[in-house]
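WP5 quarterly update. Target: Kinesin-like protein. Source organism: Sciurus vulgaris. Length: 724 aa.
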Amino acid sequence: MVEVENLKEKLISQAQEVSRLRSELGGTDLEKHRDRLMVENERLRQELRHCETELQELRAQPAGPCPGCEHSQESTQLRDKLSQLQLEVAENKGMLSELNLEVQQKTDRLAEVELRLKDCLAEKAQEEERLSRRLRDSHETIASLRAQSPPVKYVIKTVEVESSKTKQALSESQARNQHLQEQVAMQRQVLKEMEQQLQSSHQLTVQLRAQIAMYESELERAHGQMLEEMQSLEEDKNRAIEEAFARAQVEMKAVHENLAGVRTNLLTLQPALRTLTNDYNGLKRQVRGFPLLLQEALRSVKAEIGQAIEEVNSNNQELLRKYRRELQLRKKCHNELVRLKGNIRVIARVRPVTKEDGEGPEATNAVTFDPDDDSIIHLLHKGKPVSFELDKVFSPWASQQDVFQEVQALITSCIDGFNVCIFAYGQTGAGKTYTMEGTPEDPGINQRALQLLFSEVQDKASDWEYTITVSAAEIYNEVLRDLLGREPQEKLEIRLCPDGSGQLYVPGLTEFQVQSVDDINKVFEFGHTNRTTEFTNLNEHSSRSHALLIVTVRGVDCSTGLRTTGKLNLVDLAGSERVGKSGAEGSRLREAQHINKSLSALGDVIAALRSRQGHVPFRNSKLTYLLQDSLSGDSKTLMVVQVSPVEKNTSETLYSLKFAERVRSVELGPGSRRAELGSWSSQEHLEWESACQTTQSSARAHSAPSSGTSSRPGSIRRKLQPSA
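Structure tokens (predicted):
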């Protein structure tokens, strides 16, 4: 081991010498010679590492075999024998420990038996002492009795002659004597039993002592054998160590010779090391200057990239501006094409999330919008996104004025003699009534449309003379009712005009002439009072009927006598609902069934118009029959689909948007203007005369004195003048 340490120190000193030579070497050489020396240096390094590895293995396993040594087989046998002897020593040690444990257990048992034997002997001695005392007492008693027996016999005889008392005492003494004799016999029997027990205890003690002696002899014999085996094993071990040490010395000499060769090779590597040192110094100088070159290159590349990014951003902004301009032009052309084809225009409006929607996952927003295209709406239904394209989509932040601007052009065309129909569609609670009627502070399409008509009429007052009349009706449980009539519950029917033009009108429908915004507010208040609304689980004020506001604009050109007639139908459809969600029962259930039936009939009409069928089932429902003029090609029609954005209503929202897409694909043809010289058509005469008769009769009825207080409808009627 000392030689191994010395050899390691020599290797360390040689490595230091090599490093010193590397630092002192200088000069240059040819390129090929340098490569050859580098290869030779690498080979020598590998040989040095191999030698160090073998040295470490020799240090770690001094008794291991040497590859190629002639004593390797003998060494292997010795190692096997040594391992076998070590196993036998381990087994013998185990057996010795087991025997020691067994001897210890038997010794403990023997000590316990001896203690028990001593206790038994002590108890037997005490018992023998007690029995001997009792036996002595018994012998003494018997001796005393035998000594006194003749006088007793004599006394007994004497007593037998003399007295009965003496006789009784004699019998008692005899009985006591008999009892004492029995006790003596019993004590003798007990004494014999105790002597037998004592003899058996002596025999058991002798047997246990014999076993202990046998165990001790076996233990001594096993201990002697173990000592002999351990001594032989120790001798074998020392012999094997000496042989291994001799082999290690031989191998160490071979290592020394290899180290001498390595030292010689290291001396030949000095020129190559000088060349490598010079190359290394040159590379170090280049590496020191590399960060500056890299920073300069990075700076120039960053500048070029920044300039390219700015150019790309400017190009993107220009392309985005052009794209939006083209999108607006495309939409304008599309709207013009839709107008020429007569397609039903469809706009969608999403109501905001309210407190009535509740909280939690079901109240999360499931509707998103396209930031670059206001005609696209996205719906997340059951985890899958669904997109729809309509003519216009209004977000929850859109105002009533924004929605009205989209339909403003349609409404003004009513003054020019066109028929216009705007109807709101959607599930209950989606905001249809709010969009159509609004609130007093923020009115909807109905009131804004009439205000716009009044404004247009005033602008054309110098050339045209216009008359605006208003009618309001509702379809409740498939029954058409007049909301402005004296008897709102009276049933009305839809008739064909008898002039053969195919136009429809409603006989008996009340028509009021309005001349100002105040008249409009009074009509709306009266009609809203008579409309049917009820509470459901989905909407606190759910519309239970389809409401229709019919605005008729008749105009006369003062210079040419040209007469025009335009109608504006503003329809607030009742909300579609699922009975399970709305909780409708009784009359509410019957209302829901009629509402769903009429909306289903509207869907059938749309499907027939879309597929261009020869027969369109307008008469399947009062709603579709009344809207026949608006859906049959003589009208400009627009549908406002109202949708709810919350997660729990995604099924209804999906159905409404799909229906809106189907409606958007229907082509009704271009609308026709109703204008003629001289007089109105027979249909308008019938409507006008009917309205005049109705309003005159109502005016006469309210002008007559009444015995009681007038009702609210009557007071409102007196404020409105009938059309002339």
